Amino acid sequence: MEQKKNILSVKNLSVSFKMYDKGLEQKDLKVISNLNISVQEGEILAIAGSSGSGKSLFASAILGILPNNASVDGIMTYCGMELTEELQKKLRGKEIALVPQSVAYLDPLMHVGSQVVGVRGTLEKMKTVFKRYELSKEVETMYPFQLSGGMARRILLSTAVIGDARLIVADEPTPGLSKEMAKDAMGHLRTLADEGRGIILITHDIDLAFEYADRVAVFYAGTTVETAPVEDFRNGPESLRHPYSKALWEALPQNGFKPIPGTQPYAGSLPEGCLFWPRCPVRTEACMKGEIPSRSLRGGEVCCIHAT
């Protein structure tokens, strides 16, 4: 079998923000640290994790749309090329497309049809996409404020899938959609992946992701704790590697909605060692100091010294 190529590779990514502390003293607040991930051609990589784990921030880092007070360390490569600021600007909206989480990304002064066509699409492609997402011809001349929440979500999807992007970053693409429309949107992303594109799916709808994704990456407190084939998440905790991944599975409603004690740490007060150890049921002193490296295990990647 031919080895699939990486469209995106991210190694030891860190994102910090310059903040002002007491007395107007500047400090760097690190919100993503030592994050590792890859996206292959022809696959959907789902990213799961609680709110505040860095999922949307990671999407912004890929596109190069972080605010001016942000600094980025680590290595990101796109199709073997270093993803510099210059290359991000060149590829953004063309070879790398974003389905943003917020409808505020739509220009309030432009008809949505013009925004969907952009510089890469055509009227014929727009009509095809609108038909797929059950958007009538009248929607073309509407302004964003005239759209319902579900319509706006479908417009955002349309702007990303109309072109020939090799990498699509979909940040919560299904909220506000009916179950049938959400499945259709995910099916469209699956089709695009099967054509050879890479899809990053950031979602809280883990059950839906399990139906369409190839692999799942679990984020916690701004880092990756596990990346594994989607089958492992379907099979349950015994197939997973990291204690947080297992806890996330058990917290799903159909799996007992079982909570774990404690809360995800704030970026300004991260613990030493493994970021999950204050809540981990199998922690030892070795978990509480030093960097915990990622390692390959049973066909996946895990950042835990006790994983087997």
Could you write a compact summary of the structure shown?
Helix content is 27%, strand content 26%.
Description:
- This protein is of the alpha/beta class and 308 residues long.
- It has 9 helices and 12 strands.
- The chain has helices at 55-63, 85-91, 112-117, 123-132, 149-161, 179-194, 206-212, 230-235, 243-250, and strands at residues 6-20, 26-40, 44-48, 70-78, 81-82, 96-99, 167-171, 198-202, 215-220, 223-229, 295-297, 300-302.
- The chain has an 8-stranded mixed β-sheet with strand order 6-7-8-3-9-10-12-11, sandwiched between helices.
- Strand 4 (70-78) and strand 5 form a beta hairpin.
- The two termini are 28 Å apart.
- The mean pLDDT is 92.
